[in-house]
Design goal:
This protein is of the alpha/beta class. The chain contains 6 helices and 5 strands; from the N terminus they run βαβααβαβαβα.
């Protein structure tokens, strides 16, 4: 993967994952949501600290083995300029440091919710954003990737079309792995 001039009007944005490997609940959901409208292409990932899991995850997502890492810091440094954004899909306690590192390298960040674990981490992240230097990224987004599920898109259309009538209550559940 080289950083070449692209036809940005037609080429999908190049996305990398930190986390989201095999066995993850959020990885497949984010991959599906990100690539559903073909605006993003998952091109690299540090899917797991376990090399075999990271490679197998990359294979499942269609990512070349040479773009699958196990040390997220080294992997991210190697891919600066080759990614349009990185999605952080790790457990919440890891988010703050990963976000700060990516932003300092100038890599835009899309982070799984919750962004950080507590107010102190939020304040520290705000200070990082306030003090950013030229060349560093200031793009930081938190995802609610449920919109990537086809059933959610279908429900939205049914509601817009008035086919479900007046909705007075919604109850949802989503099982998650333990952190």
């Amino acid at each position: 993967m080289t950083n070449t001039t692209r036809d940005t009007a037609h080429a999908p944005l190049r996305l990398g994952f930190i986390g989201g490997g095999l066995g993850s609940v959020v990885g497949p959901a984010h991959a599906a949501a990100a690539t559903l409208d073909k605006r993003f292409a998952l091109v690299a990932g540090c899917f797991s600290r376990d090399a075999s899991v990271s490679r197998a995850s990359g294979e499942r997502y269609g990512v070349a083995a040479q773009h699958c890492g196990i040390d997220w810091r080294a992997w991210l440094r190697e891919h600066v300029g080759q990614l349009d954004a990185v999605a952080i899909l790790t457990p919440i306690p890891e988010h703050a440091g990963m976000i700060e590192h990516a932003l300092a390298l100038g890599v835009p960040v899309i982070c799984e919710k919750a962004l950080v674990g507590d107010v102190a981490e939020a304040d520290a992240l705000q200070r990082v954003l306030d003090a950013r230097t030229p060349g560093s990224s200031d793009f930081l987004a938190v995802t609610l990737n449920y919109s990537g599920y086809p059933i959610v898109r279908r429900l939205r259309q049914l509601i817009r079309d008035g086919e479900l009538g007046r909705i007075s209550d919604v109850q949802l559940e989503m099982p998650l792995e333990n952190y």
